[in-house]
Amino acid sequence: MSTSQDKPLKQIHLAAHFPGVNNTTVWSDPAAGSHIEFSSFAHFARTAERAKFDFLFLAEGLRLREQGGQIYDLDVVGRPDTFTVLTALAAVTEHLGLTGTINSTFNEPYEVARQFASLDHLSGGRAAWNVVTSWDAFTGENFRRGGFLPQEERYSRAKEFLTTANELFDSWHGDEIVADQETGTFLRDARAGAFVHQGRHFDIQGQFNVPRSPQGRPVVFQAGDSEEGREFAAADADAIFSRYATLKEGQAFYTDVKRRLARYGRTRDQLLILPAATFVLGDTDAEAEELSREVRRRQVSGATAIKHLEFVWNRDLSAYDPDGPLPDIDPDLGEHTVARGRAQVRMYRDPLATAREWRERAAANKWSIRDLVIETGNRQAFVGSPATVAETINDFVQADASDGFILVPHITPGGLDTFADSVVPLLQERGVFRTEYEGATLRDHLGLAHPDAEEVADRVAS
């Protein structure tokens, strides 16, 4: 595919997702390292910064997932606290944005706003917040309010949570601290940080104790693909993740979300669309394709294939041979799920239809259970030589299928190294990716405006 030269070339945004608690990660590879030791996070972040990436992204789960009543131990299990890791990374990087997934269902706005404002100060303006919700009472059992919020209300709470956090960020205008040592005057306004919020989900008042940070507010990410999620992003987010890997699907998502911005008084450049993307590189396209097949089989062992099939069948399938045919019994449509805490179970809203489709595909292609799971769920987004991958990434962005990509390597922590050393220089040669950072904050990297202190002050006063 060739890109049109009728319009200026878009600059590509690149970020790196530290591989986490999922079977994308091949933790059994001899090259794989710890997911807990700080050296792994530091190596990964330094590689991303060396490649001039916009930011590093950390996902987070609030409970260990279970299958059949036991901890699901075929993936990486556990992760240190997100804020702790990002704050430590702020000390070993200078430019890289630091994005954390923090839940709006089981936390409180004051607490989260204080943590993000602190991270933004300590990093010199590089903090970002991926606002997520929890949909299941299983996760909520770890918290005081376990299971209290109906699923259909989670975005209502999330929107008010973000609104409240922004009120806290904006309670400081940025000019209150005088710190005049001669007169002994520290604050120009003793009411700095004062706030009152009364709403359906939160009724709080007081004084926010973290002065306005370099970005004013953290950059806000949103990950929902539902109608509510797309509207939430169009109204309030600076960037939205996309799960669409093909050009046509990506363009449809891009067009749909961008067109929603006008109703909120926003322009197309005020919301970035950034799909997650896995990759496999080789010296040649053929070598990369062969390596890709090998990686996919390592990501989906026989045991993992059976567990993934159970997401749809919702029953114990441990007696089945992963190298044999699919079960001829139908999925259990009961309300319980054998895979507690897994978001994937929500993807299959009609398990009977999914089972029929998978049986047909498996029969037509002579696939075993393991073959089917590999083919339906574990294709890398970019496979090829560095030149091929660079061209494909650029084509997607120039064709408005995305504004860039969040790269997810399958090896931790060194899986990003080859991409940084081989693909990034080719994008730089094309003139579509930076050779140096040009600003100090993550908003600068992403081309996003900083909230204006005077406008904020006027709005709060009114």
Verbal overview:
- Helix 7 links the parallel strand 12 and strand 13.
- With 462 residues, the protein is an alpha/beta fold.
- Helix content is 37%, strand content 15%.
- The relative contact order is 0.16.
Fold blueprint:
Layout: E1 13-17, H1 38-50, E2 55-58, E3 66-67, E4 70-71, H2 82-90, E5 97-103, H3 109-123, E6 127-132, H4 137-140, H5 154-169, E7 177-180, E8 185-187, E9 194-198, E10 203-207, E11 219-222, H6 227-236, E12 239-242, H7 247-259, E13 272-277, E14 279-281, H8 285-299, H9 302-313, E15 339-340, H10 351-365, H11 369-377, E16 382-384, H12 386-398, E17 404-407, H13 417-430, H14 442-446, H15 453-461
Parallel strand pairs: 1-2, 1-17, 2-5, 5-6, 6-11, 11-12, 12-13, 13-17, 14-16
Antiparallel strand pairs: 3-4, 3-15, 7-8, 9-10
Helix pairs in contact: 2-3, 3-5, 9-11, 12-13
Q: Beta-strand percentage?
A: 5-15%
Helix tally equals 15
Distance between the ends: 52 Å
The helix fraction, in percent, is 25-40%
The number of strands is: 17
Judging from the principal axes of the Cα atoms, what is the shape?
globular
How is the largest sheet built, in terms of strand order? 1-2-5-6-11-12-13-17
Structural class: alpha/beta
Q: What composes the largest sheet?
A: 8 strands, parallel, barrel
Give the assembly state of these chains. single chain
Point out poorly predicted stretches.
Answer: none
What is the gyration radius calculated from CA atoms?
23 Å
Q: Overall mean pLDDT score?
A: 90
EC number: 1.14.-.-
Organism: Streptomyces kaempferi
InterPro entries: Diverse_substr_monoxygenases, Luciferase-like_dom, Luciferase-like_sf, NTA_MOA
Pfam families: Bac_luciferase
